[in-house]
Amino acid sequence: MRTLVLKGKEAIKKGAELIALGEVVAFPTETVYGLGADAFNEEAVKKIFAAKGRPSDNPLIVHIADISGLEKLTEEVSEGAKAVMSAFMPGPITVIMKRSKKVPLSVTAGLETVGIRMPSHPVAREFIKACGTPIAAPSANRSTHISPTSAEHVFEDMDGRVPLIIDGGDCEVGIESTIIDMSTGVPTILRPGAITAEMLAKILGAVKTFSGKVVVAKAPGMKYKHYAPSCETVVATDVDSAAQAYDDAAEKGLVPVIIARSSTAAKLGGRTHIDVGDTDADVCRNIYAALHRAEKIAGFIICEHFGEKGVCGSVMNRVMKSAGGKTV
Fold this sequence. Notes:
The chain is an alpha/beta fold and 328 residues long. Helix content is 34%, strand content 18%. It has 11 helices and 15 strands. Strands 1-8-2-3-7-4-6-5-9-10-11 form an 11-stranded mixed beta sheet, sandwiched between helices. The protein has a 4-stranded parallel beta sheet with strand order 12-15-13-14, sandwiched between helices.
């Protein structure tokens, strides 16, 4: 299969044609690039799993262009869900609700709930609208690899696996959407993201974050290894630890690199590093691109611990999974 990379109106027209034919198309969102298919076409949905090498018990998120798309996806929208959607949609949040019987179980991994998201990226919205159907989509990368935040990242993983990548530039947010489960009692964050628990609590009053053993995953990213570079990765608790881990790796003949904020990078004494900026938004936007670059130039990745507050807590959720929980 030849994979095309197109931009603009031509890309959206071609993408909509392919979706209508039951194919999969990679497209940009403000979080990461998605790998989309018609959510109501089970054969097309199967192609998503095949292209990614994704386990079939890992549910997909369904993307809509506007609020009218809810009608076919869920038969019940709680007042809490309405409040969350009013406050944060379109944007980097996914709301889990009870599914409509029209939504195939292949999309929900056999569950009676479905995750619904309305991206804010204008190209994503235009693409979904042109398709005339909700689009089921996980991130557009090989299963367990680093999520893509550029068309180039998608091409590296998906060349020959999908017919089209719609190039909408670099993703503005940089990590996957927050997922909040509104299908049970207390609203529960299943995956942290740029919409933080503090932000949701202002709308809902009471919010909890999932912790515990995952037996049945209600959301992507809960059950399986995710976001992992192709080489060993560790998290450094401070500048000295990062420098020491770098020197130890170099002595062993490895090629190390440190991923750090600008202010930390200035203290590394000439050691090879990738600067992700200084603000929390910079770190969030650049972390996946930094991991993609790091695995290309190094054999050992050391990532700064960016903190647990706000969006950096969400970033560290991804980084710790990339590192398999290893710290130095």
